[in-house]
Amino acid sequence: NIFSSILISKKGEKGMKVKFNIDNQLAGESAEFWLKKMTNKFSQLGKELSGEQDTIWCSYDDEIIPVKFENIYLIQVEQEQTLIYDKTQSYRYKGQLYQVKNILPHNFLIASRSAIINYQKIDHLEVMDGGNIDVIMKNQMRVQISRRKIKDLKERLGL
Question: Which of 50, 101, 129, 132 is the most exposed place for a label (fewest CB within 10 A)?
Fold first, then answer.
């Protein structure tokens, strides 16, 4: 049983001591915090660690705003920028597509190397010539599903 501990803090500086205990025999991971008071920062951290995060921070014009996962229709890379679309507008996300994928809830599906869709926002599918499938979202955006992701889409939709 390998067990190690890592303590992160800088001597003489104010702040929080952070200790990681690493045990490769551990059945499941957990975290416990001892706080003087709950802050928004710790609340958000708790949501992220427990997989309960419900928003992603994006930029729109000169503002940084949270976009709720439930409002997202499509996440797509265009001209080397990650764009997040809701019903009527798009937002820029600073990270890469794979980083977004890691925090999304189960109702998102990879459509291609450059697109992720919220399958709950699908209006209908169109079968194209050659067997390709386009997804038409409820906001009328069209997303082509890559051939190797068609099976995943059909399974998710129960087809």
Answer: 129
